[in-house]
Amino acid sequence: MNAFKWKHFESHIILTAVRWYLQYSLSYRDIVELLKERGVQVSHTTIMRWVHQYGPEIDKRIRRFLKPTSDSYRVDETYIRVKGQWKYLYRAVDSNGQTIEFMLSANRDVLAAKRFFKKAISSPHNQAPRVITVDKNPAYPPALQQLKCETVIPQATVMRQTKYLNNIVEQDHRFIKKMTNPMLGFKSFQSAEDTLKGIEAMHMLRKGQVKLQHSPVSNVAEFINHLFGLSA
């Protein structure tokens, strides 16, 4: 399927604008100016629509190229402002700092924790957890117990509620916050979710979690083009 059908701009221009926004701390109007220097006239709202459409698509397409993560989960939530209210971005990395999974949630409760763990385990690049390290969020123990009863998570999985062991995921939040803080909040939950999928995908690329034909990806622009079947 042609992902760029009916678009008025060349696919390379669209992907370049989307990649810049998701990879660097740039506003939509910054990208308008950068493209103008290259002879391309485009509005900031058009770029915004591109990000909302192709950010999730990048996340979807890189999944089959992700390297396996370890069975040691470090789980934490960070806050994202949506329509003036705080929402919760669940994130997990392994003991090496590689992204396991992420999920934006309107709530911070047992149901949200269960959905997040299920999403993490269902991803092909992840193993079932041997150990899960979390903070003192009281929703995690009952969520884990319910998933064990449902045989979603192995009975032998150990949960550790030890804050200092979670420094690695808290440090990893910094890149995401660096990208989202200048955005001054999102206008809707859907736009936040779509944008975060692209930001997290680019973050995994930056951390070297993606391989192509058994080799790490060295040129992000070329790889993004490759995902959409475009030549360099």
TrEMBL record:
The keyword tRNA processing does not apply. The keyword Transcription does not apply. Residues 64-224 form the Integrase catalytic domain. Keywords: DNA recombination, DNA-binding, Plasmid, Transposition. Coiled coil: none annotated. Pfam families: DDE_Tnp_IS240. InterPro entries: DDE_dom, Integrase_cat-core, IS_Transposase, RNaseH-like_sf, RNaseH_sf, Transpos_IS6. Involved in the transposition of the insertion sequence. PANTHER family: BLL1675 PROTEIN. This is IS6 family transposase. It comes from Alicyclobacillus fastidiosus.
